[in-house]
Specification:
Blueprint: H1 10-19, H2 38-43, E1 44-48, E2 52-57, H3 68-81, E3 89-94, E4 98-100, H4 105-113, H5 117-135, H6 151-160, H7 163-171, E5 179-185, E6 188-190, H8 192-195, E7 200-205, E8 210-212, H9 226-230, H10 237-244, E9 247-249, H11 250-255, E10 261-262, H12 268-276, H13 283-292, H14 308-315, H15 320-332, H16 337-347, H17 351-364, H18 369-383, H19 391-401, H20 422-428
Parallel strand pairs: 2-3, 3-5, 4-6, 5-7, 6-8, 7-10
Antiparallel strand pairs: 1-2, 8-9
Keywords: Hydrolase
Pfam family, one: ECH_2
Domain Enoyl-CoA hydratase/isomerase: 53-143, 181-408
């Protein structure tokens, strides 16, 4: 089967080779002699099953946040499993009350403040390499065009949004859902936690799933392929989620097709037992096994998806300032508390991050996954460099270290600063 990356333009493949410069190994088992790391082996557990492997994120005390050694181990494991014909599919899940809360930004914060930039740069390099690996990951006997659409996802989506609009939004994403991973997003799924899970063919959510991209609130940007995924959500929902950091539950993820199956948390043990006993890697069999423990669900009346028309009116504007003005105008004509809550969330974020995030999603809407990853990788390195802004450091300090929730370096004002230097935005977006 021809690999997706072989179809990419030569210039793009060269950029990705620079980012993913190391060669893949295809041994049946990873060679840990060269990568001995007791911490990473305890933090990423592996379970062998009849026709599959399970990779388990195991840092429950840190909500399974990712560090460099964890991502490196995941990539080594997936490298070794990719062409092993004895392994039909991969299951990924988290321990405790989270699937993955994203990157361990507190560790990055301390490492950077201590002058250890190499660790941070290596983390992002490995993370983006792993997400790219997933986006081009093809198990034997899996046809990348044979995308299994969940009946739950279709019926739920129709209840909220026009089916034709959703089909159009997601047609161009099908190449991303190319490999046989079953990701069980039970609990908190934030930031790059979605980046390492959404490329799989099957994404299972539960009654405990909480999905969000709160990066702008800590002076960063939605990363690990987020500009590709969020920009392809229906309408301007992606812009709304990225600028406000608002959450989606599992039912809402089904409705906008971020997930394929919904199961109650109490049934997960039965679902995993069923998957573990499979001796085939046929997608239809895996899908029917997931559906056996699935539920038909619909967003309740309080869901933000019922506001999709309002979101489109307000978040379709070209600039952050215009988005705020649209929200303020509608708030003045309504007593709906949603407007004031949305405005407050936006104003709590880094103004520069808001601008960068909005532009990133707008560019991602017209880019392939690989181009989004290359651009976001550059943005990530520049965002933590302090060459343009210290908002990342101040945001992490205020929200996750000192927890005073008062970042001193943010340019807070009633409106986003219109005088902000556009060169800063261009630099952070990785434009060369």
């Amino acid at each position: 089967m021809q690999r997706f990356k072989a179809l990419l333009p030569q210039q793009t493949r060269s950029s990705l080779r620079t980012l993913c410069s190391h060669r893949r190994a295809f041994s049946a088992q990873p060679n840990y002699a060269k990568h001995h790391d007791d911490d990473s082996q305890e933090q990423i557990l592996v379970e062998g099953r009849a026709k599959s492997r399970a990779a388990i994120l195991n840092r429950p005390s840190s909500l399974n946040s990712l560090n460099a050694s964890m991502v490196a181990r995941l990539k080594r494991l997936y490298d070794s499993w990719e062409e092993n014909s004895d392994i039909g599919f991969v299951l990924m899940k988290g321990s405790g009350r989270a699937f993955c809360s994203g990157a361990d930004v507190v560790r990055l914060y301390h490492s950077l403040n201590e002058g250890n930039t190499d660790e941070a740069e290596q983390f992002f390099k490995t993370l983006y390499s792993f997400v790219y690996l997933q986006g081009t990951y093809l198990k034997p006997h899996v046809n990348s065009g044979a995308i299994i659409q969940s009946q739950v996802g279709e019926s739920t989506s129709v209840a909220i949004l026009e089916q034709n609009d959703i089909d159009l939004c997601w047609t161009c994403m099908k190449i991303l859902w190319a490999f046989m991973q079953v990701a069980i997003l039970d609990g908190i799924t934030m930031g790059c936690g979605s980046g390492i899970s959404l490329p799989g063919m099957f994404r299972v959510v539960t009654d405990k799933t909480v999905f969000s991209h709160p990066e702008a609130q800590i002076g960063f940007h939605p990363d690990a392929g987020a500009s590709y995924v969020l920009s392809r959500l229906p309408g301007y929902l992606g812009e709304y989620l990225a600028l406000t950091g608002d959450k989606l539950n599992g039912v809402e993820m089904i409705a906008c097709r971020l997930a394929t199956h919904y199961s109650l948390n109490a049934r997960l043990s039965l679902l995993e037992e069923r998957l573990g006993k499979l001796i085939t890697d046929e997608p239809s069999v895996v899908e029917s096994s997931l559906a056996q423990y699935g539920d038909l669900v619909y967003p309740d009346r309080s869901s933000v998806l019922h506001r999709i028309d309002t979101i489109d009116r307000c978040f379709s504007h070209e600039t952050v300032e215009e988005i705020i003005e649209a929200l303020e105008k509608e708030a003045a004509e309504s007593n709906d508390e949603w407007y004031s809550t949305t405005l407050r969330r936006i104003r709590e974020a880094s103004p520069l991050s808001l601008k960068v995030t909005l532009q990133s999603i707008r560019e991602g809407r017209f880019e392939t996954l690989d181009k989004c990853l290359v651009r976001e990788y550059r943005m990530s390195l520049r965002g933590i460099s302090k060459h343009v802004s210290s908002d990342f450091f101040e945001g992490v300090r205020a929200r996750m270290v000192d927890r005073d929730f008062a970042p001193k370096a943010y340019l807070f004002c009633p409106r986003i600063c219109t005088f902000m230097n556009p060169v800063n935005t261009i630099f952070l977006l990785g434009v060369t």
